[in-house]
Amino acid sequence: MIYAVISDIHANLEALEVCLSELEKIKPERLICLGDLVDYCAQPNEVVELIKNRCDVVILGNHDEAQFNHQLAEGFSESAYISSVNTRNVINPNHLDYFKTLSYTHSENDLLFVHGSPYLPEEYDYVLNTREAGLNFNSFSEKVCFIGHSHRPVIYEKNDDKITICEQGSINPEFKYIINVGSVGQPRDSNPKLAFGLFDTDKFEFHLIRLDYNIEAASQKIIREGLPASLAQRLFLGI
Fold first, then answer.
1. What pLDDT score was predicted for residue 169?
2. CA distance 215 to 197
3. Other beta carbons less than 10 A from residue 165's beta carbon
4. How many structural domains comprise the chain?
5. Cβ(65)–Cβ(149) below 8 Å
6. 2, 20, 188, 232: which could join 219 in a potential S-S bond, CB 3.0 to 4.6 Å?
7. Cα–Cα distance between 166 and 177 in angstroms, integer?
8. Helix (H, G, I), strand (E, B) or coil at 211
9. Residue 233 maps to which CATH number?
10. Which contacts (CB < 8 Å, 24+ apart) does range 230-234 have?
11. Structure letter (DSSP) for residue 59
């Protein structure tokens, strides 16, 4: 079975439309979204509508939860907080109700899907290195855990007590993995191309897909929305 795993769209309609167009060609059996549909970019309602209609499973992200749990936004950076408040002012109330139905985790087919980390997923912690990955491996029994949140794609492999970073492609079904699929709407690995993951459960293969999209159009919408200019500029840099 082919799984497509997307995450962190962040109201970037241009990036999401390119992503979904590519997935129409790939035709995965399952499409899972790891959350953070809103904030940073300018079209939260359009993004939520597409995700609702196209994804088989959607996980709650911290920026989504912050729309009805406003205290979460107090810990955001200044630009993230400004964008979160802006989203509150424009979000469709039906979409707000939709966020309240989403879960922190989903498990199927020996795969776990969370937004931030498998350990206390409601806390939205980051997994940024092998040490932090090691602390999280004991938190799930599935063979592979897919995460987003940091916007930085990476594969952590656990072989006995050894935690390493490995390359995409064929991975070992005897080991456990934490796989970050990166971000569709705001990559932060110094590569501005959108990112999402494909996992083949039969071949036990993972591939990261990177695609160009119309960054200029997305950035101009951010400016017209009156959001911080830094949110528009960072899209070109992938930071």
1. 85
2. 20
3. 11
4. 1
5. no
6. 232
7. 10
8. strand
9. 3.60.21.10
10. 230/79, 231/40, 231/41, 231/79, 231/83, 234/186
11. B
In three state form, how does the secondary structure of 152-207 look? CCEEEEEECCEEEECCCEECCCCCEEEEECCCCCCCCCCCCCEEEEEEECCCCEEE
DSSP 113-161: EESS-SSSGGG-----SHHHHHHHHTT--SSEEEE-SS---EEEEEETT
For residue 77, give the 3-state DSSP assignment.
Answer: coil
pLDDT along the chain (239 residues), means of 10: 98 98 98 98 98 98 98 97 98 98 98 98 98 96 98 96 90 96 98 98 97 98 98 98
pLDDT of residue 132: 97
What pLDDT score does 168 carry?
A: 86
Domain span at residue 115?
Answer: 2-237
pLDDT at 170: 80
Q: What's the CA gap between 102 and 144, in Å, rounded?
A: 21
Report the C-alpha gap between 3 and 197 in whole angstroms. Answer: 8
Largest CA distance in the chain: 52
What is the torsional sign of CA 128, 101, 14, 19?
positive
Q: How far apart are CA 225 and CA 3, in angstroms?
A: 34
Place of tokens 């039906």: 94
Q: Under a CB-based contact definition with an 8 Å cutoff, are residues 16 and 41 in contact?
A: no
